[in-house]
Amino acid sequence: MSRERILVVANSRKTGRRCVAGVSLFDGRLVRPVSPHGSGALSDRECRVDGHTPRLLDVVSFAHCGPDGDPAQPENVVIADAPWKLEGPANRSHALALLLEVAATKSPLFVNRGRAVPETVAAEGLDASLALIEPAHLRFGHGSQARAHAGSPRALFRYGRQDWSLPVTDFDFGPRILRMPEGVHGWEDLGFDKPDRALLTASLGTAHEGWHHKLVAAVLRFG
Fold first, then answer.
1. According to the 3-state scheme, what is the secondary structure of 41-89?
2. Does the global pTM surpass 0.85?
């Protein structure tokens, strides 16, 4: 059994449960703790710390049994049946510096310029299913103007010389977006001051109808 210590960069919805991800404070790699049960999505009980599930930019540690062997999600580690520990929220300036280091490297997740990866390709093994990115021109929306199906909140942004419209599974931003009229909206429309810096935690979802779709699991605001 091993122990991991992470800066939390996602706690999003996944098949009625949670998908938690973080940056390892041991070696700077992206890590996704998964359940040994079912689809791997975490129950609240499995990832509870101090009476709540991990919050963005918390520092938490947990025991795990090593990788789960999913070729489509190489960051996965299977949690052990042991309580998680919360160290507290990270210093935000230190957290930003660390996350910008991670985001500075072009992620293999965005080498494929489509919004999804075929399940057959993913089954052969991917280099990454998680990415931290610093987008340009970030906006939010739903409906046809946001290039989204009905009821699908989206993040719209430019990254890697390409425009993207990806579904948002962030527990905070997703419902805020859907409470707005259909269309595309800025930070102020959602009730936020425009941040000095914003990062996105992007993830490759589990397979659905033969495809692994890219999504935004968290929106991280600084300043």
1. CECHHHHCECCECCCCCEEEEEEEEEECCCCCCCCEEEECCCCCEEEEE
2. yes
